[in-house]
Amino acid sequence: MDILIFVVSMSALIYGADFIIDQSEKIALHFNISAFVIGATLIALGTSLPEMAVSMSASAKGSGDIAVANVIGSTIFNISLVLGAVFLIAKHIIPSRDLFAKDSAWSLFPILIFILMGIDGKLSMLDGILFLCLMAAYLLFLIQSNQVDSIDHELEDEKFAWGKTLIFLFIGFVFVVGGANFAIDSAGNIAREFGVSEWIIGLFLVAFGTSLPELTVSIKAALANNADMAIGAIIGSNVANFTMVLGFSSIINPLNVDLSANFFDITAALIVSIMLVFITANKLYNKSAGIVLMTVLALVISNSF
């Protein structure tokens, strides 16, 4: 029964996030915002809502390992699985924005700061506030660097209906928050039933489920030849996962962080973040890079189990 509840809960999370993403994208396009900034802000924040809801709920319930592991696992999946899938599926990826010069460092800063904060074994309320300040800095950077490079003219010409948009946003939030609560309870029960630690459940089962919105949105964007939006969503989502998800979660309840016990998984998240910087620096937007990223994911999964 717990497995069924978990599957239904994750479906609610994903569908809820999809509602929020669609409506947020319409709002952004209505106000003439660039494709990359849409991906890195509204879509990234929308796809991070499942992670945020799950981790905040886990923190409130005292399941700190699930909260932290969810963020570490989502970072690994977002870069290795999602970005790898985008590279393998898309025919041509030629971002119009210099991702290395402008954006790649933002995928590395949060995890480095997380490691520094975790040296004392916990993320405190002060750490959470500092994470939120980092997110504010990232949003300010994106606003200042916004360049309108891709506008959906069908949406631009469509009559914008605030009433319909707000209703769908509300439905999306209800699905996300409700699904998160049930997902945490059922995931904890599954872990206890099979004798698996909450860290492993959060790292793989929960993190993979909450990364599905990023996977869906990024692949759809890549197939539509909108590489800026696809990669922007991945970078922005990783920033939001560390800053907003861990920020709010540690404010609700201080989170324990065992860097030594979870050294391999945290190092894997750091390595894939460095790989993203390397890929953007050398413009390796091709199938070879996708295969390498997928190989790293396979190694992480095999070693973690």
Give a written overview of the molecule:
The protein has 305 residues and is mainly α. It has a single domain (2-304), classed as Up-down Bundle (A middle domain of Talin 1). 79% of the residues lie in helices and 1% in strands. The protein is built from 13 helices and two strands; from the N terminus they run H-H-H-H-H-H-E-H-H-H-H-H-E-H-H. It has a two-stranded antiparallel ribbon with strand order 1-2. Helix 6 (109-118) packs parallel to helix 11 (227-252). The longest helix is centred in the middle third of the chain and has 33 residues, at 162-194.
CATH level 1 name: Mainly Alpha
Tally of separate helices: 13
Radius of gyration of CA atoms, rounded to a whole number = 18 Å
For this structure, the CATH topology is: A middle domain of Talin 1
How would a crystallographer describe the biggest sheet? 2 strands, antiparallel
> By helix and strand content, what is the structural category?
mainly alpha
**What is the residue-averaged pLDDT?**
83
Number of strands: 2
**Number of spatially distinct domains:** 1
Strand neighbour order, sheet with most strands: 1-2
* Helix proportion range: over 70%
Question: What ranges have pLDDT less than 50 throughout 5 or more consecutive residues?
Answer: 149-157
Strand content: under 5%
Distance between the termini: 24 Å
Q: Give, in order, the helices and strands.
A: HHHHHHEHHHHHEHH
What is the chains' assembly state? Answer: single chain
Assigned CATH superfamily: NCX, central ion-binding region
Assigned CATH architecture: Up-down Bundle
What is the approximate shape?
globular
